[in-house]
Amino acid sequence: MPPTQHRSPLARLLAPLTATAVAAAGLVALAPATQAAASPDISVTNTKAHLDQLQAIATANGGNRYTGRSGYTASINYVKGKLDAAGFTTTVQSFSTSAGTTQNLIAELPGGDANNVVMLGGHLDSVSNGPGINDNGSGSAGVLEAALAYAASGQSAKNKLRVGFWGAEELGLLGSKYYMNSLSTAEKDKIRVYLNVDMIASPNPGYFVYDDNPAGNSARDEFTSYYTSKGIPWEYIDVQGRSDHAAFRSYGIPTAGIFSGAETLKTSAQAQKWGGTSGRAFDPCYHSSCDSVSNLDLTALDRNIDALGHMLWLYAAKDYGTTTPPAGSNLLANPGFESGAVSWTGTSGPITNNTGRPARTGSWKAWLGGNGATSSENIAQSVTIPSTATSATLTFWLRVDTAETGSTAYDTLRAQVVDGATTTTLATYSNVGANATYAQKSFNLTAYKGRTVSVKLLMSEDSSLQTSFVVDDTAVTVS
């Protein structure tokens, strides 16, 4: 979490008093806006193991996991490996900062309604002078373990589950801002809730719930109702846009979050309620070299990851109703690839801004093949076609150039629809007749309305002479 130097001294003085005053009313159970789901027990042992690994990464990389440095890259690789192994589709999103190039990591669990996205996140970077194990190893480890537990549970999510691990939060919330700026308006509108997790294992802990986006925000009330049901006193806190929920909130997406305290001093009333030491910071090692694995309260961590798991199970199953996009709207995310590989799955590498082949529009495209060697590449994206649609159409623009000659199809590109265990090939293109100009292709997907399917492009190239299949400006539109 960034420091508070931009906050006025008066605001900092009043914050604990305001929170304490509101808490008296907050201890009364609020009627949850969503039916309560079974609350999972997220493993604190597994979460602590993630934190031990982040500590080892920091120790091996100059004592920190700072944006743009090797410790942060190693942190991204560790989290990505865990999510990949659990079946998530992961995307690394690179962007530039004053500290150099850094990354966000976005992961989605296959299945669920892509028009209703439930998102959890936290920042993965530390400050430059410490390993950042509470801030924010605790939050990112909690998000990771909750996501892994959901994938292992066998639950079938009604909504699309997406998790984000943000870079450069300590430089001014840059990662989450970059991510939101990379989304089209249509994709932002699909995010139904964003839950932020930033510092949840402070050694002198409190139990705070964000209250800076209260209007019509059932997620805030679900958090407080959960804590009340477990007999855990809580307080509202206005974190004043100091964490990654701010980019989502500014667009109007409902946000909520939990927090165990940073540099503010615990009051005597708070110490009486929660235990710990009054007159001492909730985290005396905040933004310091001592923010290591020894700077954790595992009871607070255990309680908070269970709260997070409760919210994940609850919102993954929440009924947002049937959403019918406006006629002509594009159901595919990042359809022109201008955000890189975001929202697309498949082989690493085809989605590129390499100038060796031109994009139809913009700078990015999907360049499949062109290797001149035996290879197979694919890209895919899942899409939910509303049951209320009267028609659905897949279109994309394709450019084919080749060094092959003759009438034999040596290299091919298949346009496919994957519906559960059934794969249907809509068309096959090859080196035969290639003319290196873009042409639009169109297919009727109306038969798949009411279903979530995957649109897939699969390239196969033989051992000699290249054929490049370049795809741009994709769309699935409904009417």
From TrEMBL:
<dbReference type="InterPro" id="IPR041756">
    <property type="entry name" value="M28_SGAP-like"/>
</dbReference>
<comment type="similarity">
    <text>Belongs to the peptidase M28 family. M28A subfamily.</text>
</comment>
<keyword id="KW-0378">Hydrolase</keyword>
<keyword id="KW-0862">Zinc</keyword>
<dbReference type="InterPro" id="IPR045175">
    <property type="entry name" value="M28_fam"/>
</dbReference>
<keyword id="KW-0479">Metal-binding</keyword>
<keyword id="KW-0645">Protease</keyword>
<dbReference type="Pfam" id="PF04389">
    <property type="entry name" value="Peptidase_M28"/>
</dbReference>
<dbReference type="InterPro" id="IPR007484">
    <property type="entry name" value="Peptidase_M28"/>
</dbReference>
<feature type="domain" description="Peptidase M28">
    <location>
        <begin position="104"/>
        <end position="308"/>
    </location>
</feature>
<feature type="signal peptide">
    <location>
        <begin position="1"/>
        <end position="38"/>
    </location>
</feature>
<keyword id="KW-0732">Signal</keyword>
<protein>
    <submittedName>
        <fullName>M28 family peptidase</fullName>
    </submittedName>
</protein>
